Amino acid sequence: MQRRWTLLACALVLLTAAACGGADDTDTAGGLPASAGGSQVCVPSAVAPPAAPSATQSGAADTPATPATPAEVQAFLGTLTESQRTQALHDDVLDAKRCSWSSRPDGEFTGRTGLRLGDLGDAQRAAALAALRGVLSAGGYAKVLRLMDAEEGGRDGFHIALFGQPSGTQRWTLQFGGPHLAVHVTTGGGTVSVSPYFSSAPPAATTASGRADKPSARRSPSREPSPDVFALFKSLTIEQQAGARLPGTYDDVVMGPGADTGYPVRAGLPFPRLDAGQQAMVRAVIKGLVGDAAAELAQPLLDLYATQLDQTTIGYAGTADPRSENAYFRIDGPRLWLEWASTPAGGLHQHALYRDKGLDYGTGAG
């Protein structure tokens, strides 16, 4: 195991490049895109991303250089034909691919790149999932499989792509995603980034009449976000609730696909105003989402966010009831950005999002 992680010492990202239905399509409260149905049109950000901060720059994660490419990634590439390698492996880094992820399926979003799992042979498909498993925690990988299996088409509609040449000396990104899921891993050249990371359970299956039907075992939606999120906000006193309440209403996450810049001004209840038990809950909630990445990748970032908790706020709008389309939660720090929202688009379900304001995509975009 130790040798395996020596090989896997490359940084990875639960990341997602900016895509469709972006910030310009949302209301001033940062809610649901103007059109909840139909296709998404990919509009790249007009703002060029800043250069990637190095591990020695102020505000960047203090993480060690990563000397080797994960063995599972190299093994996956070894299963591909020349034509498939051309589809999967992009020479350029992700900076110019800012419309490559979405919460929508392929039929409603055309920006995805890479190889589709449904187009791979059994051995190639297994190798692709092994590459993904190598950058996630056991719980994170189980969640990803659960989310894929809950989709109507199962795992077939998910894509894997690599940006930049996998190397320990130059930055590169592994991107994996499909409907309701976006995972990116950026590493190399000392970069460790596991954001953006978007996950969501699809709505329960419905009958032809549109009424909620009992979900099948295959399509049973996972319970996202973590119940710990709701427990945290339900624990607030009346006074704390007043301090944590955000203005407006939210029908979706604010910094989702297509929104790489323009984070809202920090608002909500300061972390120091929570009692010891509530503070422990905040730490657990943060770890519960960031920790979907492999521990060796997530821990340096978790350590950084812990040093910034006194400058971090929690906020909510609507209710703390996940069954309500008005439920919205946020944890906002100097670098950390976490959101959870119950969205009614296509049937009530929850979206969960993790971003790092200083190191998204490994570039510092945002």
Q: Could you walk me through the main structural features you see in this protein, from its secondary elements to its overall organization?
A:
The structure is a single chain. With 366 residues, this protein is an alpha+beta fold. It is built from nine helices and twelve strands. Strands 1, 2, 3, 4, 5, 6, 7, 8, 9, 10, 11 and 12 form a twelve-stranded mixed sheet that branches. A hairpin with a 5-residue loop joins strand 11 and strand 12 (349-356). The two termini are 36 Å apart. Mean pLDDT is 76; it is low at 1-41, 44-67 and 205-223.
Features:
disordered N terminus, 9 helices, twelve-stranded mixed beta sheet, 366 residues, alpha+beta
Our estimate of the beta-strand percent is 15-25%
Secondary-structure element sequence?
Answer: HHHEEHHEEEEEHHEHHEEEE
Average pLDDT works out at 76
Low-confidence stretches: 1-41, 44-67, 205-223
The coarse overall form would be: globular
Secondary structure class reads: alpha+beta
Count, helices: 9
Beta strand count: 12
Distance between the termini: 36 Å
Radius of gyration: 19 Å
User: Share of helix among residues?
Assistant: 10-25%
- Largest sheet geometry: 12 strands, mixed
